[in-house]
Specification:
- The complex is a heterodimer of chains A (343) and B (227).
- With 343 residues, chain A is mostly helical.
- Chain A has helices at 4-23, 37-45, 51-61, 63-67, 75-83, 93-96, 106-117, 121-128, 137-154, 161-172, 182-194, 198-211, 216-232, 240-260, 264-275, 283-295, 299-309, 318-341.
- In chain A, helix 10 (161-172) runs antiparallel to helix 11, helix 11 (182-194) packs antiparallel against helix 12 and helix 13 (216-232) packs antiparallel against helix 16.
- Chain B is elongated and about 105 Å long.
- Chain B has 227 residues and is an alpha/beta fold.
- In chain B, 41% of the residues lie in helices and 20% in strands.
- In chain B, a hairpin with a 4-residue loop joins strand 2 (62-68) and strand 3.
- In chain B, 31% of the residues are buried.
- Chain B is built from seven helices and nine strands, in the order αβββαββαβααβαββα.
- Chain B has helices spanning 2-38, 78-87, 106-115, 136-141, 156-165, 182-194, 221-226; strands at residues 49-51, 62-68, 73-75, 93-96, 99-103, 128-134, 171-177, 199-203, 210-214.
- Chains A and B meet through helix 6, helix 7, helix 8 and helix 9 of A and strand 2 and helix 2 of B.
């Protein structure tokens, strides 16, 4: 008897655990606690808060408020964007933020201006040569950055070994503030996306946005990279909890972008551009398309995208597929209810 | 008694005149002060229209600019202008092949960036404003020095051939049309469209000029749309 008691208890615990794993609704999967029988019964009555469910509900009810709801963008930055002293769409940190460009001798400034006027990569690269060996590391950094940008331009946006080398040199320069590296980090991430290396891209975009949260292109391409990473790499092996966390991160990046594009019409146009990206064709990509459409107040497009999430053969792990399907179903039902409420 | 009355009248006259002069001087000085306060310093007698483009792509292609006038077509020698500005860093203006160019100095860029909030120009090292005007007489005479010049009497197909001959793969075509050059541009537009050449065009007077720039405002959509 005494010897049999522990094995019976273990069996009960095992059955309880299995029941919890099979019968628990998808949002409960986000709960990191070991879910035994008691935990399962409690979760049936008090479901833990699910950030994805909350984000979807907010986007359906108040798209404009939900779009601007990002902790990553400070109130101060939002006001500066509104006033026009921060320009998130600008292509270098020196144009995005007013007054951060330090003084430089006139001949070097003229050389940078001539490079900007150059009519071919060959002409621009030749003009940049003396600046790449300038005494000031910030000037050298900028010269390497412009070298990479010219090489991207002439190659139609494709990364090349020469551009990689220029970016590596740029990132080796000792800068007065590490935040000035945002553009080099972004280009590194962009090259990784084009080479279908989403993990490297996600990390580079994270660093670019950490350095400059008002960097619109970095937020835009971070969405593509995160969706690609989830669909093509980590999503194939992730368990439910980590898949849910990755999806929450992805939706947070979408809201980050929404905070930077304050005009609703501009955001709608950007969503249309984003929806054509090949990176958003997997299941996570479709889910993001649905969320983007919700924030752009385009419920028809959102319904279509969420319907695509469950269709076709999934490349994702079974738990990850379930997490996505559960949330897409939830959004579809909420949209249907909203449609009935507002005919 | 009469003398007394006369001297009083003279005194009153003098005082009245003095008072009048005093009022006049006060009014003039007030007007001058106010005028100095409200009149802007007329530092820019003429502003060329800006050609601003919202970068649709992160890595836009390079551009070949041609200007269609009533008497001919000019290829803007921007590469030569960039080189000339680099070779003579102390100069801001010059002329190449009938195309006059003038670069804004840094002080003016800073003034625009700091004082004109609506302009929202950032003074980055690479920021610039370059104004270009074309001398129509030089175009008509065909005495320009730039090698890309298209013959004034060339047919539209010959113009397209000449323009596309040396157009690199990474370079797109931008056409500026002088209001007097529409008759010439019509057939050229058709010839370019027939050849499926990607190009964009805007109307700018050759004599009033056009301003090319790189600035933060180029990335603000509302500003770019206005142009």
């Amino acid at each position: 008897m005494l010897r049999g008691a522990p094995s019976l208890a273990a069996a009960l615990v095992l059955i309880g655990g299995l029941a919890g794993a099979v019968a628990a609704p998808a949002p409960a999967l986000a709960d990191p606690r070991p879910c035994l029988f008691a935990c399962w019964t409690r979760s049936r009555t008090e479901p833990p808060p699910d950030p994805i469910r909350q984000a979807l509900a907010a986007a359906i009810a108040q798209p404009d408020d939900a779009r601007a709801d990002s902790e990553a963008v400070s109130e101060q930055t939002r006001e500066a964007i509104h006033r026009g002293t921060v320009v998130p769409a600008a292509d270098t940190v020196f144009l995005r933020h007013r007054g951060i460009t330090p003084a430089l001798e006139a001949t070097a400034v003229r050389r940078f201006q001539a490079v900007a006027l150059a009519q071919s990569a060959t002409q621009g690269l030749e003009m940049l040569a003396p600046l790449r060996t300038h005494a000031d590391p910030l000037v050298r950094y900028r010269a390497h950055l412009e070298t990479a940008r010219l090489l991207f331009r002439t190659a139609g946006g494709r990364p090349t070994p020469a551009a990689d080398e220029a970016l590596a040199r740029a990132l080796r320069e000792p800068l007065p503030s590490p935040d000035l590296r945002a553009d080099a980090m972004f280009l590194t991430g962009y090259a990784a996306v084009r080479r279908r290396a989403p993990q490297r891209a996600v990390e580079a975009f994270r660093q670019a946005l950490q350095a400059d949260p008002a960097y619109q292109n970095a937020a835009r391409w971070a969405i593509a990279a995160q969706a690609m990473w989830l669909d093509q790499e980590i999503g194939r092996t992730l368990g439910a909890t980590r898949c849910q966390a990755a999806l929450e991160d992805l939706l947070a990046t979408v809201r980050h972008l929404g905070s930077l594009v304050q005009n609703a019409n501009h955001f709608r146009d950007m969503v249309r551009d984003l929806q054509t990206l090949p990176a958003l064709t997997g299941q996570a990509g479709q889910f993001v398309k649905g969320y983007l459409a919700l924030l752009a107040a385009d419920q028809g497009a959102a319904r279509a995208a969420f319907a695509q999430v469950g269709e076709g053969r999934s490349a994702l792990s079974v738990p990850c597929t379930r997490v996505l399907a559960a949330h897409a179903g939830m959004a579809t039902r909420a949209l249907a209810a909203e449609g009935e409420r507002r005919p | 008694m009469r003398d007394q009355t006369q001297s009083d009248a003279v005194l009153v006259d003098v005082i009245t005149n003095l008072l009048g002069v005093f009022i006049l001087v006060t009014m003039i000085s007030l007007l001058v002060t106010q005028a100095a306060r409200i009149t802007p310093v007329p530092d820019e007698p003429h502003e060329a229209a800006p050609f601003e483009e919202r970068p649709q792509k992160m890595f836009p292609s390079f551009s070949l600019y041609i200007w269609v006038g009533a008497d001919g077509i000019v290829t803007l020698p921007l590469a030569a202008i960039a080189q000339a500005l680099l070779d003579a860093p102390d100069t801001l203006k010059g002329e190449i092949g009938g195309v006059h160019y003038e670069l804004d100095d840094t002080q003016r860029l800073e003034r625009l960036g700091l004082t004109a909030q609506a302009d929202r120009l950032r003074v980055d090292w690479s920021a610039y404003r370059l104004t270009l005007t074309v001398d129509p007489a030089r175009v008509a005479a065909g005495t320009g020095a730039d090698p890309g010049r298209v013959p004034a009497d060339a047919s539209p197909d010959a113009v397209v051939e000449a323009v596309l001959r040396d157009l690199p793969a990474d370079t797109a075509l931008t056409v500026f049309v002088d209001p007097a050059g529409f008759e010439r541009f019509g057939p050229l537009h058709a010839a370019l469209s027939d050849r499926r050449v990607c190009f964009r065009w805007r109307v700018f007077s050759m004599t009033e000029g056009v301003t090319l720039s790189r600035a933060a405002r180029n990335f603000i959509r509302d500003t770019a749309r206005r142009c």
